[in-house]
Design a protein that fits this description.
By secondary structure, the chain is α+β, with helices and mostly antiparallel strands. About 50% of the residues lie in helices and about 10% in strands. It contains 13 helices and nine strands. The strands form two sheets. Strands 1, 2, 3, 4 and 6 form a five-stranded antiparallel sheet that branches. The protein has a four-stranded mixed sheet with strand order 5-9-8-7, covered by helices on one side. The longest helix has 28 residues, at about 75-105. The protein is globular, with a radius of gyration of 22 Å. The mean pLDDT is about 85.
Amino acid sequence: STSVKEMSDMMREQRKLMEEDEQTKLVMQALRGANTNEDDFQDANVRMKVVEMREGEKDLPTTYDPDALADYFGKRPGAVFSRVLQVASTSASYLTGLAWDAARGKLEEAEVARAAQLRRTIVSLGPFFIKLGQALSIRPDILSPRAMVELQQLCDKVPSFPSDLAFATICEELNVDSVGEVFSEITPEPVAAASLGQVYKATLRSTGDEVAVKVQRPFVLETVSLDLYLARQLGIGLRNFAPSFVTDRLDVIDLLDEFAGRFYGELDYVLECENGERVREDMKNLPRVLIPKNYPEVTTRRVHVAEWVDGEKLSQSTADDVAELVNLGVVTYLTQLLDTGFFHADPHPGNMLRAPDGRLVILDF
């Protein structure tokens, strides 16, 4: 039978042949996330706009319920109008520029600059739009390779929020007066930031273990809920008024409801902890695969604590065994799909690492 090493060599040769074509080479690099910026925090000067409601999360469902959202936001027209205005004003510059490029016949010439502007616009609009951008970043059938490279940067590096707010969230969620009651050490600033939260490196006081502490952004539930409500209202409008040849082939509401249910699941870090432990158990017999340990006793809906793992992005590693780890990743996902029936559904470049000892690390469940 063909060994993993032989399979890696065969795939490497195929990639070389494919990359002889410049356009195919760009697509391959974009899919691997090979050209993304390695700054600690991208768009540090871009402010992520959220919906700050006086009631906070009170009365908002924590699982996706479109009827409950319609009832909730139907009583709050001010918040709805404010968000519509926010989205319109934030995206106006990009849409105007794109229209101007099209009118002058310079869409291709301005592609790189517009892709960067699109990324900044998406970041400003918040988690819902960032998730859409992440989904688009691996779709060469929709976006050009250069646009894909820009949107790949949405996967794990977006602006952070103030640490005092993060530490206040930790104290509130874990019911302590100070983060020092739980962590003997914690970095004063985040080591990474993503669409829904940011991560600190810390040491658990109870065990001395080095851990990654992920803290959810303030007002995420409110902002995501309102954006999903608005998107669904738009979908209802399309269903009612779009031509039948469109609605017969695509049900926007069903598609959105499926996406929204999964999205709400990502807002519950307790569920992420349970998923991580289940996959860790399922994958324990696969060699060279590392699933970080989770700590359910200090994990809540908005704070997640897991084993700290050093590593570099698999997509940007220059180690000799990267091709073998890619194939190992394929085996890992096939095992999840065909054997256990429970799989990691977010395999973007930010979630796949190469550990210093050569193991494949899979994050974020």
